[in-house]
């Protein structure tokens, strides 16, 4: 049945599909939200997904171009994960130096360009997509994989060298382990107060 405008009078099938996709989307987002505080378990899950992908590629002995593309994408994510949200090099040109250079300067915590959760989510999703691609022979382009591996390693080391030099130049550390933590004011005990 159509109305005078040429549109269906009832969007019944479309509303069912729309309602179902919204419901699935809400459930998926709920699971992601619940997994946010469980960092170790999320990374263990990622390790399992990555191991399954590596075993599949090793068993099939193919899909090296997919693995190379995955490696480039991971390198891109890693650089964003290790980089500050505001690049000090660009900010220095625009505003002058802004990172603390003396102990009396204001403390500014390191804020990543790509937060840990988004890094985990993106890398896990990339491995899942690459795994699915291994089931389609159209993506199995014959290549000499040692050349791709060598090129990726050279690219990785050159990129990491540049990133480490950037960290040293602007004196920031993207990791929180080993840093001092503020635990609040120490309240003196009764014994300390009486002496």
From TrEMBL:
Claim: Membrane is one of the keywords in the record: yes
GO biological process, one term: protein retention in ER lumen
Gene Ontology CC annotations of this record: endoplasmic reticulum; Golgi membrane
Similarity-based family: Belongs to the RER1 family.
Name the record gives this protein: Protein RER1
Membrane topology: Multi-pass membrane protein
Main location, first listed in the record: membrane
UniProt-annotated location(s): Membrane
Classification of source organism: Eukaryota, Viridiplantae, Streptophyta, Embryophyta, Tracheophyta
Membrane-spanning intervals of the chain: 39-59, 65-82, 119-137, 143-160
InterPro entries named in the record: Rer1
Known role: Involved in the retrieval of endoplasmic reticulum membrane proteins from the early Golgi compartment.
Keyword annotations of the record: Membrane, Transmembrane, Transmembrane helix
